[in-house]
Amino acid sequence: MPKIRKLEPNVVDQIAAGEVVDRPASVLKELLENAIDSGATKITVKVVEAGIKKIEVQDNGCGIEKEDLEIALDSHTTSKIETIEDLANVMTLGFRGEALSSIASVAVVTIQSMPSAALENHVANEIVASDGKTSKVSATTRDIGTTVRVENLFYNVPARHKFLKTPKTEYTKLLEVFIPIVIINPQIHFVMESDGKVVYNLPLVEKSERGMIHPQRLTQILKKYQFVNLFYDGDGVTVGGVVAHPKHHAAKVGNQYVFVNGRAIWDNGIAKAVTLGANRFIPDGHKVPFAVAINIAQDQVDVNVHPRKAEVRFANPYRVYSAVENAVKKAYESTLQMNESDKEFSRFRTSANSVDSTPSFVSSPREQQNFGQNKRYGVEQSLRFSRMLLADSGKDISDEQPVQHLNYANDREISARQFLGRYIIASFGEKLLIVDQHAAAERIRFEKLLDQYAGRGIEIQQILAPISVELDKSHMAFLEENQEIMKNLGYDFKLIGDNVEIIGVPSIIAQADHGKLFEELIEEIKDLGEISDAEGHLKDKYRDSIIATLACHSSVRMNQRVSDIEAASLVRELMKCRNSYSCPHGRPVMWELTKREIDVHFDRPL
Ligand code: ADP
Ligand code: MG
Fold this sequence. Notes:
By secondary structure, this protein is α+β, with helices and mostly antiparallel strands. The protein has 18 helices and 26 strands.
């Protein structure tokens, strides 16, 4: 790595300095990026109390020479760029030269480093900074590489220290930084220790490099998903990575990762593009997990827009979005078309040693041949998949849908019959109703659950065979702290290691796929912040949407037969609802034709 030099003041001004450090996770991000930039092949992270007490990152990279170590903790010292023009071509993750100095101003920082043999002065040195003062460099011993230890974060900034959340929450944030970096750097062996326990030990993937989304690395951390490979190359944009099989769809999903030129970022447009590309295979409004790696010319993307580089700006965002959308669509289509059944979806084996070693974004030759060609989608295949995957396929949600309280005062005779396997045609007084049976069932369950929640609590039904769910570490950390919220939502469960054993479920929706639903709920709740009171009762503004998730996540199958009597009773229950016009997510529930409308249509006197 080149020598560290002080940036010219004008360059300093041109780089808008931002807040680099706001919590342990942002410290971890900076230290990991420095370690990656150093060319390390093994990085060990040790945190104590979720990094609030200590974050230590050890690497076996190029190391820092003595004279550089002396100034590494000064502000605006970097070895990575020199002029503002260099910004257009940064290949390293860091370049502002402000991370170490910012961290040293709010914590006790110790750096030990041994420069690689290629560098002069091949001796190990140590430097300590605390209270704005830097110690003299002193000799020490260690292997080639660098260890940066950050202790007692914000010890001298009480306001900041107070702002830190509980260790559980901070730990979740640490993982949110760690996991994407691990995914996009398969060439590095990562170890993570928390409070003395090894939580991750992920050997490097042979012949891999930074920027690759490699199946072998993915299987180390996202075991539970079946993935489909992405591949797109055109218009100067390459898209690689994976998207989860459509069966993993949910209204809220975690594990969505975006990378641009080897850098973990977030971009809503890209997430939307994935959903658009998947739209024929998953229900409206639902999403799937993905890890998308975009490679694009350096001058087509600005990584300098965000102080923590969490977002980037594309010169031509729509070109990138359409590349992503295309990649997802083609990946689903060609995989479905090539294979007779979904079980042949490219599946990542769960054992790390038996994994295919080709990088996942290089698709099979057959798949590649299909790219660019607008192949017609097999109608049979499409129908089969729609049946299997789409729980519902209603029209777009119309915001103008009037929300009314229907008062069909006396429960007069309703005659009803199922139609096309999914609707109910009912006549009722002087009205003709066409009801979407699935949306109606959701609306009814939603209001019942709401009433129970507001009253004596959601009724729990114990189940005979407990359901075991393996949660992500971040989900588990959240759950441990917020068990009451889930109990109030009608779940009875035990926590056993990283697993949850569900032993009771909300009785109104006893038939649902609770393994999936439980996880989806946590995913939805996790990032909302303070959503409940001390007893875990949801605050009003969150209650409806969370209970809607419960109500809508049912396993109603398409073409479920409904007898005339059941149809009539469904319509009757719907009439009792406070709002019988739309399902909790806003989808229309029924289409009402009044006598007047019918008469007008037939040109009959009113
Ligand atoms: P930046 O990464 O933006 O250059 P930092 O403040 O993060 O700025 O780091 C300052 C300099 O210290 C880097 O440019 C690099 O030369 C050196 N450095 C920091 N961490 C390491 C490391 N783990 N290995 C080698 N050099 C490092
Ligand atoms: Mg840096």
